[in-house]
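User: My collaborator sent over this chain with a note saying "see what the structure looks like." That's all I know about it. Can you take a look?
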Amino acid sequence: MKIRGFAIWFDLVLLALLLMSSYVAATGPQRGGNKYVCSEANPETMCSAGTTCGSVSAPCTVDIKRTANAASVTPGIAGAKSNAPFCVKVGTTVTWNSSSKNVGFVLDFGPSSPFDQGTIIGGSDRSVSAVAKKAGCYKFSAGACVSGAIYGMCGQTSSEIIVTSGN
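Assistant: Without extra context I'll predict from the sequence alone. Here is the result:
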């Protein structure tokens, strides 16, 4: 009986270690030891046709959603992954919206923003457009809540936007 109890306990410990190592591998530092592109010396080098959203003549639409475990920020780029860094050029209008029904969102760029406004607040019934004016790399946090959600039911995430001055 003691051997069976020990075996169950040992299996649970192994399962916990496996889950923790998977979590660390999935969320650990990437891109040369930095978790964020903005922490690198030249973050604009990651900008290409596949990572640049919109242009000076065409707006960049960014979809903010409440997911099962958090929030997601997905730029209107073919094949874009949610919460991945993306690029826009100075002068590009970025339209922040939510394609999910009854979702509100808040974007916070902290003390420095590429737009001429501070916190961006919008939702599924209210898109917010802002023109990227300052080149640089910006980290921002995004929160999304479903209408009627109670405390703790909102999701959060962080992402990055690289604003380039190139043509």
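A starting point for your reply to your collaborator: The chain has two domains: 1-30, 39-164.
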